[in-house]
Amino acid sequence: MKIPTPNFWPAARTGQRILLQARRREASVDGHRMVFLERGAPGPGVPTVVLVHGFAAMKENWAFWLQKLPREWHVLAPDVPGLGESDYRADASYRYEDQARRLQAWLATIPTDNLHLVGSSMGGAIVSVLGHLMDPAPRSITLLNSAGIPEHPNVDLDAPFESDRDEILIPGDWKGVYRMFNSVGNGKPTVSGVAMAGLLGPDLLGRTDALRHIFADMVADALAPARYLSADTPPLQVQWGDRDVITPTRCVDWFERATPQAEVHVFRGVGHLPMLETPGRSARVLEEFIGRHGH
Q1: How many CB atoms lie within 10 A of CB 159?
Q2: Residues contacting residue 260 through CB under 8 Å, at least 6 positions apart
Q3: For 108, 199, 236, 292, which has the most beta carbons within 10 A of its beta carbon?
Q4: What are the Cα distances from residue 202, in Å, to 162, 180, 209, 276?
């Protein structure tokens, strides 16, 4: 008889939230129950900073930043519909534009005129679209190793797109889980990667069908964010790790042409997740950027 692998992640997630002094909240968007973390409250002169995680991830990816960012900020970190604690629906579309519209509907209920969007990987692709759908526009957008960015100039943004990243990002067994957590960083095995594989493996392995659906929808219009980003984009910051194997550093070159006004930070020796791999540096440059655009 096969003994089920215990899933300790729900208990760990609750403990983490308590330590971060964040509140667990729920909202309903487009037929999905969406769970999010909230710390602080909106108010005059207070930035509302929305942190949007990546594919096969969750709101808790921002835990290190929540320890670093100013306590007086109003911070929101949702589980993007389809992932984390939020509902997944087999009949829903999870293309970037659809996800952006869901978050747009949710944010319309937040009483703030000092909004800043931050997205990692898939989340970067979503906020790239979201920032251009909102009226009024956000005060700033920050992208961390964003998906949806061309790796080469003069790419046809509407051409069919193929990706083999699902081989890394959708684990089918424990070997795949280990590979995932030790590939999305700088490519080297780490103690934290092994620990996260053990903690999150059972949850990930139970989501294979949902992850394949969401990934297919992302790839169906993979470069949609690049259609929105331009010289007219709200103040834009780009953070990138130079060891990323998911979204290569050559993507940064595209911003120089399409969004020449962007503030770009490339972190040496860092992989796909600057907020986890170098939380102090990445949070500091975000804080400085929002400080310049939050008034």
Answers
A1: 8
A2: 231
A3: 236
A4: 28, 13, 14, 21
Look-up of token digits 């215990």:
6
Q: Reduced to 3 states, what is the DSSP secondary structure of residue 234? A: coil
Q: Where are the alpha helices (DSSP H) in 36-190?
A: 63-68, 96-107, 122-133, 166-169, 174-181
Buried b / exposed e across 14-53, counting CB within 10 Å, b at 16+?
A: eeebeebebeeeebebbebebbbbbbbebeeebbbbbbbb
Residue 281 CA neighbour count, 13 Å, CB half:
15
- Whole-angstrom distance, CA of residue 264 vs CA of residue 256: 9
In whole angstroms, what is the distance from residue 45 CA to residue 170 CA? 41
Instruction: Work out the burial of residue 114: count CB atoms within 10 Å of its CB; fewer than 13 is exposed, 13-18 middle, 19 or more buried.
Output: buried
pLDDT in tens, 245-285: 889 899 999 999 999 999 999 999 999 999 999 999 999 99
Contact of 233 with 131, CB cutoff 8 Å: yes
pTM metric for this prediction:
0.93
Structure tokens at 245: 């194997």
